[in-house]
Amino acid sequence: MWWMMNEGGGHYCSKKSDDICGDVCGQFDIYIYVDNLISVNNSIFCMLQESSRLSMSRIRCILRGIDFKTYIFVFVMIPTCIFGIYLHGQKISYFLRPLWESPPKPFHDIPHYYHENVSMETLCKLHGWGIREFPRRVYDAVLFSNEVDILTLRWQELYPYITQFVLLESNSTFTGIPKPMVFASNRDQFKFVEPRLTYGTIGGRFKKGENPFVEEALQRVALDQLLKIAGITDDDLLIMSDVDEIPSRHTINLLRWCDDIPQVLHLRLKNYLYSFEFLVDNNSWRASVHRYQTGKTRYAHYRQSDEILADAGWHCSFCFRHISEFIFKMKAYSHNDRVRFSHYLNPKRIQRVICKGADLFDMLPEEYTFKEIIGKMGPIPHSYSAVHLPSFLLENADKYKFLLPGNCMRESG
């Protein structure tokens, strides 16, 4: 039968002796009636047997066994898949994150009680804390890049209860890009804090290509030294947070008056993007308040405790007035590797993304479960609530309307 070996010990060949398969493979043949996979395997086997006769004829022999659909798969589908992975590989990685990374240990949430007509003694008691005879001193320390508007809101919100504002500015971004001394150029706008301000500068090392978190860590060490210059002492309160992570003033007033508060307490902030129109969630947690300990307290921006106080303020990320400020931060901050394509920095694209509430870097949510990732996919829903926002923002709504609901358009400068 045709599938059996012939008398000469070779495979049966239905082709004529001058067939290309016969030329290449001797008595082996690629039988045209079997499926494509067997045809390809037989061709490859033929090539292994007759390796000394490698030629274009052998390649033609292989191709005869491949049908048109296989051509499409090899030359169209595979390159398309590779290109798709190149474009969306980061999305694929973030979506699959739950497979290799577990959620961090949950915080112990401390309920937050507040009303303007309730006495401080009662509020401290509701939290399980005692009341002090006099309030602690409070130091607010930040690393500054270019967030003039948000810094104004922050300092106006905290002003009544801050003993010393401490600000460190560098002439370099975390990514090693030279930058102007923005605060120094706008210092006149902050005369209201001048008597309580400790301002310091640090020169950048301008090491491009280095991990941005190295430069960031060095600047935070320098901020530790600036705090000592500012006069911080044991049991003073120290606020550790980025400029755009703003504790509410009543939160800081509570902590400075109450006794027996945790040594390190994280603050759970409402998490906004672009303005107070786009509420992402209530899970911003990196801001913290410390009862200062000489030789132990180090300025940092990572988890340092399991205790967290609920509803303690606002985190307004990428909340800029000008499109140019968005572009600057996208290139300058520690996660600048997220700018994978140059068109991400196109001003028209950035404006569309802002008004839509989408992601500037076209990324999926950074979550630890598939449920949370899927639940947060797509643009952030618009919020039309302007209740419980920093008072200075509402009192100066005309100047800061870009931060309020319904005002997504940004200035180009």
What does this structure look like?
Helices cover 35% and strands 15% of the residues. Helix 2 (36-49) packs antiparallel against helix 3 (56-64). The N and C termini lie far apart (83 Å). It is elongated. Strands 1-13-9-12-6-3-4-5 form an eight-stranded mixed beta sheet, with helices on both faces. Strands 7-14-10-11 form a four-stranded mixed beta sheet. A hairpin with a 5-residue loop joins strand 10 and strand 11. The chain is of the alpha/beta class and 413 residues long. Among the domains are: 66-99, no CATH class; 108-322, Alpha-Beta Complex (Spore Coat Polysaccharide Biosynthesis Protein SpsA, Chain A).
Could you outline the blueprint of secondary structure elements for this entry?
Layout: H1 20-25, H2 36-49, H3 56-64, H4 68-95, H5 97-100, E1 108-110, H6 120-126, E2 130-131, E3 138-144, H7 148-158, E4 164-170, H8 182-185, E5 197-202, H9 212-230, E6 237-240, E7 245-247, H10 249-257, E8 258-259, E9 264-267, E10 269-273, E11 279-284, E12 288-291, E13 307-309, E14 313-317, H11 323-332, H12 347-356, H13 370-376, H14 391-395
Parallel strand pairs: 1-13, 3-4, 3-6, 4-5, 9-13, 10-14
Antiparallel strand pairs: 2-8, 6-12, 7-14, 9-12, 10-11
Helix pairs in contact: 2-3
Features of the shown structure:
single chain; 413 residues; alpha/beta; Spore Coat Polysaccharide Biosynthesis Protein SpsA, Chain A; 8-stranded mixed β-sheet; 15% strand; elongated; disordered N terminus; transmembrane; Glycosyl transferase, family 17; membrane; transmembrane helix
